[in-house]
Amino acid sequence: MTFEEYRKLVRSLFARRWVRYVFVGGLSAFCYILLGLLLVSCWGWPMLLGNALAYAASFLVAYWGQRRWTFDIAQAPHGPMLRRFAGVQVFGLVFNALLVLPLSHAGLPYGLAMLLASVLVPVAVYLLCRFWVFRAVETLASRETDPRFLPRPGAGDDLWQQPCGNPPAVSVIMNCYNSSAKLEEALRSLAAQTFTDFEVIFWDNCSTDESPLIAQAFAPLRGRLRYFRGEVNVPLGAARNLALREARGRYIAFLDCDDLWRPEKLAEQVDIFETDPQVGLVCTDTEIFDGRRVLKRLFRQSRPVDGMAFRELMQRQWISMSSAMLRRSALESLAPLPADGTPPPWFDESLNVCEEADVFYRVAHDWKLAHVDRPLTLWRVHGGNTTFRKFGQFADETLRILDKHCRLYPGYEKEYADIVAMLRQRAAFQQAIALWRDGRGREARALLAPFRSASPKLWLFRLVSHLPGRCFDAAARLYFALPAFLRR
Fold this sequence. Notes:
alpha/beta, Spore Coat Polysaccharide Biosynthesis Protein SpsA, Chain A, 488 residues, nine-stranded mixed sheet, 53% helix, 11% strand, 20 helices
């Protein structure tokens, strides 16, 4: 392994929050042992005093490391967090004793009881740190976007003076509905692009806030932002089609109104398209962030595949909408642009949660995929996100996409038998979750009965489905809080 490969491996490991958590815990334990030995054994301090100082130092190392590195909390008062963190450490000691002593008395070998506790106690402490110690104080911190995610001041201010092609190389689609809170930041990241031959198709879906004023008054994009307002509010897929009707570029990019782009994003994607005319879609790595810190990086959890990668994309979707750029001819290969000026039917308007993935799948079936292995897209998530509650809708639309593929591609069920089986099992699982949430656990288990030999995840769900449906939210949040390797 070369040094560069080793460096990438280390970086990918430490990008995982639970790895940083374990490392900081090990570092604090090492500090406790080392400082205790120095104070007591080498310098002759009284054992009680030396041990107390060593423990205090290791506690501060653990607190500071978990706060600043693991959970990336920079601006919040220390008092409440220190008290909670101390309480969690005490909880860990008590929980360890409550696990080991009863298990030992019940006849379990002491070594095995310690091993079990050494796994369960850190996981419990980690979850408390994430959801109580460090998450609870988020409301005390600034809700403004951290400046490190934004372009440098003044970047792109003179873009209005630079010429744009007619037609431009790239059309950037921005669909907006009451997005005034972070809209100007998204526009700033667009104006700061190093590639400047682009237009902006800004489709306002009947906003009632300040979004129209912000978009039309944003000076750096003067002359290249084309503002359109719909007559009635329509679903997002339909709104995307309406905006695409106005696009003139040979490449189509999408930027949601609260997401951000790094300055090199368009330039690096266009370079790939110009190099290989068989590439129909280029995405970039994406950092999911909340405005103040990066929560995760997509490609570290799901590595993309280049080339003809339809099967791989159907197995695991790695493309975020704001990272995608499509060749216009790839979109037109899905369905010709109507000659009567009506919107193109590229986004399936009957879908509400899978309309983007549906387009990506169909492009990937006939065109090469490519990616930029740099996090040039920032996908903002909000505390009110409710996507995880839409399991029933995902199940329904997954099956509709499968039916569409069977109609479009002759021999699909035979050629992609493994994909068909996987999607049907996935849809059944999603439907079962929706049934359990509605208090119909018995029906959920019956739905999964044909998949008795399937993954451990289904077996675990069968056990959980015996709980009341009102436990769904807590169980879902606990599941998504677990490290990715445990979820898999």
